[in-house]
Structure prediction request, 274 residues.
Amino acid sequence: METMKNTERTGVDIRVALSSRAKAISAQAHHLRAGSAAQAGTGAGGQGFRARIKRWIKPFARGVYKIFRPVGSPLAFRTRAYLMAPLVTEIHQIRQQIAKDLATHKRAQQEATERLLSAHTMSVKRELKASQDALRSRLATRATSALIQNLLQPAGTFAEFGAHAEVQGAIAVLKIDAARFEQGMLDEIASIVSRNPHMALIVAFDASHHPNARHSNPDWPRVFAHLGLVAKAIDPESGVLQDASMHSADDALPHNLLLAREGANAWRRAQGAL
Prediction:
């Protein structure tokens, strides 16, 4: 015994070391297997319980769904429509306002364009009318002057009423400016006509100088009818005498008029009889 106690180990015994380590590993493995088995048993039991609960609840849930589906779906749609109604209304109002603003802007642009076009058109019409009246006035003046020259042949006196203080002597042609005519002048004109029964009156309209001449006295034949004078219109282009009733006071520029007594020298000369 004494000899064995004093025996010294000079190295590591590999078999002893491996045997101890193997025992420790085996114990750990056994412990792990036991824990896994316990967990597996617990999990299987839990899954089985949940499966039973689901099998019991599913028919009940299916029945409840079938019962409430006819009511729940319309209610859900109506709830959504109710919640969306203010937003839809606001969007609709915004669209209407945008459309209204666009229509107002478009109408304002159209009105502005129409006003500009109307103003431009009126300006062009006024300029064109003024040009036409001026041209017609020049033509009428030329035609009337030619007629006056014919009436003054072979020798006659021409006078313009109002240009002199008093018209005296034998008169062949008396010219009256329509723009300056007044009813108070009739007595003096009647006196001149009574002293010169073969004379002619020329009533001249000049729109370039007197744009309102046609409104001064529109019914010229009637004005001088009591003096026994017959009126004829002088064509502004040809100077040919026309029926005065063919030309109304509404004409842009009335024709110049020749007034004389039928059978008078001026009347026959104007008609080409002399």
The chain is about 60% helix and 10% strand. Residues 15 and 21 are 10 Å apart (CA to CA). Residues 133-270 form one domain.
